[in-house]
Amino acid sequence: MGKKHTCTDPRHHVHDAKAFVRAVEHACRERGLRLTPTRALVLDLIARAGAPIKAYDLLDRMRGKDDEGSAAPPTVYRALDFLLANGFIHKLESINAFVACHHPSSDQHSVPFLICNRCHTAIELEDASIVGKLDDAARALGFAPQAQTLEVHGLCARCVAKSR
Ligand SMILES: [Zn+2]
Ligand SMILES: [Zn+2]
After folding, report:
1. Hey, what domains does the chain have and what are their CATH numbers?
2. 107 C-alpha to ligand 1 centroid (Å)
3. Could you tell me the distance, in angstroms and rounded to a whole number, from the CA of residue 1 to the centre of ligand 2?
4. How far is the CA of 143 from the centre of ligand 1 (A)?
């Protein structure tokens, strides 16, 4: 595993929420994107959640954090769209929730996720070969893939250890 270990640590985001938002600010500057206060706030809340967070929980947490009405659902959904489109967060379709991306400096990408059914942590499986194989298999059938949703449900290592 070596270097990959810190990236697949499910607690990674909680400890690094501030650094994560800074990394995204940096990426936005480099790519000429604008990280508005609302976008930054949504990003910060997602990073702080430490586990996948649903849109209505985000809306809940936005309330009281701002006084200019940026907690209005359309504003929050637009912020989520921006963060998704630029690869700063991922949407987990099977549980309809959002997580911060471990490598915000790279563009939007498909990655498999391992989702724990007990503690609800989501681990980004950084293995480009899996995505590449699926892509190749699809193209071999003449299919032009545009997006992949690969979500594996089960128990994370910590929950497996606890249940022993
Ligand atoms: Zn990612
Ligand atoms: Zn777990």
Report:
1. 4-162 (1.10.10.10)
2. 9
3. 20
4. 24
Give the burial string for 94-130 (b: 16+ CB within 10 Å, else e): ebebbbbbbebeeeeebbbbbbbeeebbbbbbeeeee
CA 107 from chain centre, in angstroms, equals 13
User: Per the structure block, which two tokens stand in for 88?
Assistant: 């700063």
CA of residue 153 to ligand 1 center, whole Å: 18
What radius of gyration, in Å, describes the C-alpha atoms of the chain? 17
**Ligand closest to CA 88:** 1
- pLDDT digit of tens for each residue in the chain (164 aa)? 333 334 445 444 445 788 899 999 999 999 999 999 999 999 999 999 988 999 999 998 888 665 556 678 888 999 999 999 999 999 999 999 999 988 877 777 788 999 999 999 999 888 888 889 999 999 999 999 887 889 999 999 999 999 88
